[in-house]
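Run log, item B.
One chain of 434 residues. Sequence copied directly from the ordering sheet:
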Amino acid sequence: MSLSSDFKNFCKKIKLDDSAMRTTSAEIAKKLNKEFYDVTGEESEHMYIVGSVGRKTAIKGSSDLDLLFVLPDEIYDKYNGYESGGQSQLLQEVKNVLKERYPKTEISGDGQVVVIDFDAYTVELVPAFINDDTSFVYPDTHDGGSWKITKPLLEQEACDDIDDSSNGAFRNFTGILRTWKNNVGFSFSGLLIDTLVAEFFENNDCFEDATYYDYRKILLDLFGFLKEEDSNQSYWFALGSNQHVSDKGKGRFVKKAKQAYEKIYNASDDSINEVLREILGHDFPKIDKEVRDYSVKEYRNTEEFIRDKFPVDIIYNLKIDCEVKQDGWRPNLLSRIIKADGFLKVDKSLEFMIISTDCPQPYDIYWKVRNVGKEAESRDDIRGQIVKGVSSHREHSVFRGPHYTECYLVKNNICVAKAKINVPINLIPEKRRY
């Protein structure tokens, strides 16, 4: 198959099937319409699907369904009349109504939304009021309470316009970038992704008639565009609404984009699929030659992938490191060894550990250790199984190869954070080993 066909199949594979989410939205709308409007069986009136799902830029495995439900004006008058805390009381009222519909489900009021934790995804519902034709007023409980303005419909309209003008490439590439950040493992706001991809296409009208044959060049140019962004920028103006959107990932996407750009730029036609699989994950197709080579290996394929166990939607940051120990030697961190362009010898004690994360507890921790290279294959010991663990994981360096370890945080049955560290063992002359 051609690379263009591979891109086409990949974009199709990562597309979100939102049918279950739309059913959930309808069920919630029926309950709220009955409670606040005394209307029975209404599944769509007053309810808006917003966020990435509403903009149609979410991908398979998305963990959030953002909803906005418009309440009657008299509800606003009631809670706006409170001397203080009216916004918090509004969230509590909506929460209690939904608790009647979902009595066994965890539901909470959180800042600006009512949060419903389903097994497959989390619903964040904003109770709101019509402000004008393009905006809504919603409650914010922080700092004693206030009312804020949101304009999700303008963002949806902007996505529709840019997708039409780019022959569908806009939404394909917002999905590609989401898959990239999930595979590499860093936080990158969905609205910021959509905003930056929109700016890229607006600045490159040469891609108006883009086809899948152009996707390799578009992806290279898109990473080239992202790597020039200011990683210290505090906010961007969201597409359509011009509201402020910040980057929870603290600009890490800039460095990651530079790395991706260099890999694609240096890739040959023979290696491009392998490079894209490294960047975008194993949903991107192998070339036929890779499939044939792989089929004649004499080792067992024991590798597991987190996407096969849980939906993956990286929304938190995670950093791991490894303490390297050996009798008679001072302990050292693997990150320092790698930074110094160093490598490990065999017979080292390795303790991998979580250094930091902004993911709130509770969550489950999983580890994966993958042995790579000819020696791992000849020993029939590539490993790669995903195992549940704690905040640290012990290993021992046994044989040479470019091994690696990954850590995953799973919250509400969704992988929400991911980190990887390379473990190079006995790859260069003795004088540079650690």
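Observations after the first pass:
- The longest strand covers residues 414-425.
- The first helix runs from residue 3 to 13.
Flagged for discussion on Thursday.
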